[in-house]
Amino acid sequence: MINSSVDKLTRSTNFLRFLGQHALIAQEESPSTAGEEEIEDQKYHFVSLMLNLVNTFLYMVNTYIIVPTADDYSVSLGAASTVCGVVIGSMAVAQVFSSVYFSAWSNKSYFKPLVFSSIVLFLGNVCYAMAYDTKSLTVLIVGRLLCGLGSARAVNRRYISDCVPARIRMQASAGFVSASALGMACGPALAGLLQWRFKIYMVTFSQSTLPGWLMAVAWLLYLVWLCISFKEPNRATEADDTPHNRASGKTKCGYWAS
Question: Taking the alpha carbons of 47, 53, 56, 57 in that order, is the dihedral positive or negative?
């Protein structure tokens, strides 16, 4: 309590706090009591937190891995090179809508939204990769829209806010920001390595389609890991914690907008 008061008076900000605030994830202002810490510990599961951070990383990779090749991909389908802006931006537009229903869904479950997100992202990447062989720009854009509709970043933030104990919430928030930044950096780098071209039966693998196939495999593996290892938090303990959240001026609906 003394350290917290000194910190407020001096307005000092360490690196982890800066990253946590950048993630727009609420942080406890007052120290938790022993009972509240026990409730938080019952909801916390380290592997589930890691799965949320991996989901964040993969989604950001998925967003930026097509940037180096979207231009050539659009031209190969008979569209103007400027259409690549629509291909890249359609995912972000669809994410606006996914934030609404995923945040509402997370009121009841964290596991089911993550499973749904993984399936939709898998299908979206398959559509993106298959657009070359179907010679359809529509399939390409639909694939990217599906990827945007599978964005579970609202669930990832909500899980950290609700299920991670206050004593490590700032570190988890920093991990969320770091996973996002790492994904943004790895996406174009991976695209630069996928410079092969070959064909298996009627399916073409090239620098334009390989990002879609790679991410489809990544989401499929993630889905298997999710189904095996994710632990759904105890909603009974979360309900018990609601009066504390109200007293501190926080409600569940306050997290979805971020």
Answer: negative
